[in-house]
């Protein structure tokens, strides 16, 4: 019963100075709100990156040009390419876990149709490319193996191309010109939208990679090779076997390629977001420490202001532990209230950020629980010294205090 009386007295003391109590808890509120908002926005950013990587397809391994030494200078990822169609065909024939393989060509070019023009990405791919990317054909069909073998002038277009050049008309069967070469549209891809990096995935024209090599780029090398592993648990093995195969094909020379799997790409893409989240969390922790110091400061002021009250309580039979418990509970109640308000503020800010920036946020009940627990622990840690000081007051001296 004495414990509940102590709680009632502590809450009554906080209600006497509501404004001061709120201002004291402001540091805790800001710190907890920052933690909740940073974690929510960070989790949303990571989820968006992962969704964008997942839109590339499932169990993807990609071979990029680069990572070579020429004249004593090492080139990085995307340096001059030496990847060839033969490399892609060798992977398809010799790597058992490679379910699908597509040589990749990529350039930007001006296209024309219906008296309109548009600058877009021209991709050269194999017929299996939509299956690798999990990118259904919305209308028409994908070009065929025969089209690839004959380097046919056919193409499949993205939704953005249809909207820009064929407004109100059916694009299937019509012709668009790429670098003054006519290509017949045989298919329309379903909409994929923007990826995490702000690139419109639907702003693309896909043609047979042979057509791109012979008619558009007129160069022998590929931009990359996309491989789909048979299952997720085979990705690491497939990646290593591809590395060994390409190294063997280059007779042991320094690697002029880089092999990455989908998880590597996801980790690279989320690394910046994770680093920024960690840095901001440290800022929030500093804010919480400052808030705790504020709680300690106000509690010390409260002990000084209520010295006579403490003396009267001690004189009528209260023990030092009762006084310590009262002031400690006041500090914990103040910090916990700040924690609750901080959680609500953090959620509110995250929702507002999501609407303003059109970015997803993911709330974490775990971090909300951590925030509330930490706010209570701050009350204990920073409230103990003022409470101990109050409990050690001499009743006679306290009653004489003016």
Whole-number count of domains? 2
**Mean pLDDT, rounded to whole units?**
82
Count up the helices: 13
What structural class do the secondary elements suggest?
alpha+beta
| Helicity, as a percent range | 55-70%
- Overall geometry comes to elongated
Explain this structure to me?
By secondary structure, the protein is α+β, with helices and mostly antiparallel strands. The protein has 2 domains: 2-52 and 271-400, no CATH class; 83-255, no CATH class. The chain is 56% helix and 18% strand. It has 13 helices and 12 strands. The chain has a 6-stranded mixed barrel with strand order 4-5-10-7-9-8. Strand 2 and strand 3 form a beta hairpin. The longest helix has 44 residues, at 262-305. The radius of gyration is 33 Å and the shape is elongated. The two termini are 32 Å apart. Residues 68-78 have low confidence and may be disordered.
Features:
single chain; 402 residues; alpha+beta; 2 domains; 6-stranded mixed barrel; two-stranded antiparallel ribbon
Q: Which helices and strands appear, and what pairs or packs with what?
A:
Layout lengths: L1 H15 L1 H37 L5 E6 L3 E2 L2 E2 L10 H10 L3 E16 L2 E10 L3 H5 L3 E4 L4 H5 L4 E4 L1 H7 L9 E4 L2 E9 L14 E5 H9 L6 E6 L5 H15 L7 E5 H44 L1 H9 L4 H38 L7 H27 L3 H6 L2
Parallel strand pairs: 5-10, 7-9
Antiparallel strand pairs: 1-11, 1-12, 2-3, 4-5, 4-8, 4-11, 6-9, 7-10, 8-9
């Amino acid at each position: 019963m004495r414990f509940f009386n102590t709680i009632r007295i502590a809450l009554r003391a906080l209600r006497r100075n509501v404004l001061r109590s709120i201002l004291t808890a402001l540091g805790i509120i800001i710190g907890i709100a920052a933690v909740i908002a940073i974690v929510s926005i960070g989790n949303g950013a990571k989820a968006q990156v992962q969704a964008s990587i997942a839109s590339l397809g499932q169990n993807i391994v990609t071979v990029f040009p680069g990572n070579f030494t020429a004249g004593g200078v090492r080139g990085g990822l995307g340096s001059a390419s030496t990847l060839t169609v033969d490399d892609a065909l060798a992977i398809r024939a010799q790597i058992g876990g490679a379910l699908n393989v597509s040589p990749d060509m990529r350039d930007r070019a001006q296209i024309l149709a219906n008296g309109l023009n548009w600058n877009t990405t021209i991709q050269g791919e194999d017929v299996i490319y939509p299956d690798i990317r999990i990118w259904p054909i919305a209308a028409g069909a994908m070009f065929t193996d025969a089209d690839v073998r004959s380097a046919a002038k056919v193409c499949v277009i993205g939704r953005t191309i249809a909207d820009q050049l064929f407004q109100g008309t059916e694009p299937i069967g019509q012709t668009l010109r790429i670098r003054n070469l006519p290509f017949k549209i045989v298919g329309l891809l379903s909409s994929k939208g923007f990826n995490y990096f702000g690139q419109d995935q639907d702003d693309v024209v896909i043609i047979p990679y042979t057509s791109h090599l012979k008619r558009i780029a007129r160069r022998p090398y590929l931009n990359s090779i996309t491989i789909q592993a048979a299952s997720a648990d085979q990705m690491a093995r497939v990646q290593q076997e591809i590395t060994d195969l390409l190294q063997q094909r280059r007779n042991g020379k320094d690697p002029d390629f880089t092999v990455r799997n989908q998880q590597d790409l996801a980790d690279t893409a989320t690394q910046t977001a994770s680093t920024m989240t960690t840095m901001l969390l440290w800022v929030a922790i500093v804010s919480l420490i400052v808030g705790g110091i504020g709680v300690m400061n106000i509690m010390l002021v409260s002990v000084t202001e209520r010295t006579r009250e403490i003396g009267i309580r001690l004189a009528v039979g209260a023990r030092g532990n009762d006084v310590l418990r009262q002031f400690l509970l006041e500090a914990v109640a103040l910090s916990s209230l700040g924690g609750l308000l901080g959680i609500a503020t953090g959620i509110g800010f995250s929702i507002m950020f999501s609407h303003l920036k059109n970015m997803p946020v993911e709330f974490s009940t775990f971090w909300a629980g951590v925030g509330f627990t930490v706010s209570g622990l701050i009350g204990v840690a920073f409230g103990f010294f003022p409470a101990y000081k109050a409990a050690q007051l001499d009743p006679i001296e306290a009653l004489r205090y003016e």
